[in-house]
Amino acid sequence: MSMNAKELVITEDGFNNIKKELEYLKTVKRHEVADRIKTAREFGDLSENAEYDEAKNEQGFVEGRISELEHKLKIAVVIDDKDIHTEDVGVGSIVKIKNPVLDFVAEYKIVGSAESDPKNNRISNESPIGSALLGAKVGDTVKVQIPDGEAAYQILEIRR
Description:
Blueprint (H helix, E strand, L loop, with lengths): L7 E4 H30 L8 H26 E4 L14 E6 L4 E8 L10 E3 L3 H6 L7 E6 L2 E11 L1
Parallel strand pairs: 1-2, 4-5
Antiparallel strand pairs: 3-4, 3-7, 6-7
């Protein structure tokens, strides 16, 4: 992940989830890994000690993740629930859309890229569909570039 100075748009839930994970990594996981390193050191020769190597690798991963989460919190712009309106689509909106050609109806929550989870219908405001939906109103039809050309989606409903 490139850590540039751009903002990270995130919902309050997403912000709190990052804080929770960071707290867990700093207070629990970091100590577990340190204990594993200490125990592995007691096995002797570190040059042939797989447990030590594995624990050191995990320590590197944990420290990297802590650094990444701290950076996300630093650049986060939290979308307050009361700022989510229903006149048009924005980050935090829940949107019901219909593809009239396929007679397909779906509902998505538009979230910041850090919270994106397409399997759970949470799509990023930076994704092709998410960015096309931003600013659209109920009744609008938005066009989205897809590998086969273009798909059209009609906005059926916008809610919080």
